[in-house]
Structure formats: C-alpha cells, structure tokens
Write a sequence for this structure.
C-alpha cells in the first residue's frame, strides 16, 4: 500500500487505501459524528484501520470541505462540527503522527490532473458546481497553494455587476459573510434564486434543467451567462489548459455545451476559451487527491 486518503463529508467518513498503481485496494465507511471529539476519534480509528490493513503507517491525506487558517490552524467548516477547532492538530495528536489536510475541491483538482481527465496537461483548474462553488488549481501535478490558503475559493469572488444590474438580481449575504458573491447566483441555491427573481417561481435546479427549453429558458440562459463570467475570470487569470467541472450541477445533461458557448460569448473578441470537460474520477477523486498530496508531502520531507 502506498497511501491513505480520507473523504470527509457531512454525512460520511470514507477511508480509501491505495496500492502502488493508485487504484483503490480497500475502503471503509462510517457515519460522520455530530460531536467534535467523536469526529476526531472516528477519523483516528479510520486511520488505524488503514494502517492495520497496510501493515504499517503510510502517508495519510484528509480531504474535506472548508479551510484551515494558516496562522492559527483553526478550521472553518460549514458541514462539520469543527469550526474554531485545531482540527488537523487534534487528529495528529490522536494518531501520533502528521497528516496532510486538503480542501476537497483542491484534492479533486489534483486527482483529475494526475489520474483523471487532466493527465498530460500542465495547468488544470477544477470548478465544483454544487451546493456551493469551489475549486482548485494544479500545475505540473501539484496543488497551487499560497500563504492565505484561500486559493480556489472561486465562489467567493464578486458576481459580475453588469449582469446583476441587467437582470435586476437581488444582492444577498453569502454564507462567507460577504455580499454579492458569485456563489449566491450560480450554486444550486443560487440557480433557485435566479428562478425566483426572473420568474417568481420557487423551483429546484433539476426542474429548471428539465424545463430549460420551455418556461425556464431565461433562467438557464442567465445561469450560463453568470457562470461563464466566472469561467472567463479563471481564463483571464490562469489561462489553464483545461477546466474540469464537478459537483451536482455538472451532471446536468448538456451543461458543457451550454457553458462552452456562453464562455465564448464572454471572451474578448475571437480569442479562444479554456476547454471544459467533466471530471471522471467519481467518488474516488477527493480521497485519491488527498492521498496523493500526502504522498507528495512525505516525499518532499524525505528529500
């Protein structure tokens, strides 16, 4: 066994143990506790299970939503009982060795760049379109990470003012505390907010997608237009070889075609746009990306 990855979500903790070929050799899943101490214990138990299967300690990566403050080490999480806690340090204390903690969107970017649809590409951006909006950037098979540890929080960039004004969209407070974040318009709840603002109907994304050639045509068009502005920003800032889409909204039939056309309309003149593709790693991406990041970190320490 070469490394252990843990996909930590609001409802489940799944440990995946990877062999030398980076295929999943073993996996084990338990429910996510609602108490912080129980959460740390559950993760530590999962790591010990993996160590036993592996016949010894291997690098461990934990992929989870949220952020760790680079100075205090305290967690900021929306779906885990860990906010304000030294989450990584407490896990390390419980198992007696270091781990690598990776935002799950960054872990997906790394996994797709190294093992998935981004193989052979130098710069790969992952964009997660789900209940929230996040992502990550991998360059030469390594996560691009800076001193603030917030790189990849694409959903918390400002929404395009010209479109907010053009369609008389409401400006609301985001879960991050800022106002007018892109996420509040293009995440799942944001698509629902667009439908309410544009049609007066309170309708969920699957129904909007199903009716996008009928009475939800404008909602779909505006959602594509708003999302394309984020794609345009990523292209202008990073100019990636590939943008990999993941998350629940990426599974809407035809989303790549719709966003590709909208992104071209948003681009300057007749310059090209970054190629859009769907993630191919499925439920392995987060854990494998975290495991690979841990394997990389151990290699750099050994060096």
């Amino acid at each position: 066994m070469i490394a252990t990855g843990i996909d930590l979500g609001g409802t489940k903790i799944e440990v995946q143990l990877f062999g030398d070929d980076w295929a999943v050799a073993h996996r084990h899943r338990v429910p996510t506790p609602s108490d912080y101490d129980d959460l740390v214990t559950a993760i530590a138990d999962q790591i010990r299970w993996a160590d036993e299967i592996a016949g010894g300690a291997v690098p461990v990566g934990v992929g989870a939503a949220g952020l760790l403050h680079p100075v205090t080490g305290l967690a900021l999480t929306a779906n885990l009982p860990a906010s304000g806690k030294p989450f990584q340090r407490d896990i390390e204390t419980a198992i007696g060795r270091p781990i690598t903690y990776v935002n799950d969107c960054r872990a997906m970017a790394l996994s797709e760049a190294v093992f998935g649809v981004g193989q052979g590409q130098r710069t790969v951006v992952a964009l997660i379109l789900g209940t929230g909006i996040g992502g990550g950037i991998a360059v030469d098979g390594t996560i691009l990470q800076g001193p603030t540890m917030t790189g990849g929080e694409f959903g918390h960039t400002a929404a395009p003012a010209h479109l907010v004004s053009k369609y008389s969209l409401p400006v609301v407070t985001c879960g991050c505390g800022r106002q007018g974040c892109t996420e509040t318009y293009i995440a799942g709840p944001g698509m629902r907010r667009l439908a309410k603002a544009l049609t007066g109907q309170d309708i969920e994304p699957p129904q909007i997608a199903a009716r996008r050639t009928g009475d939800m045509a404008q909602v779909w068009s505006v959602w594509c237009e708003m999302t394309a502005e984020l794609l345009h920003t990523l292209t202008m800032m990073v100019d990636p070889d590939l943008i990999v889409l993941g998350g629940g909204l990426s599974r809407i039939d035809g989303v790549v075609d719709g966003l590709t056309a909208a992104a071209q309309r948003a681009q300057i003149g007749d310059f090209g746009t970054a190629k859009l593709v769907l993630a191919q790693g499925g439920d392995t991406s987060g854990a494998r990306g975290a495991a690979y990041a841990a394997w990389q970190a151990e290699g750099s320490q050994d060096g």
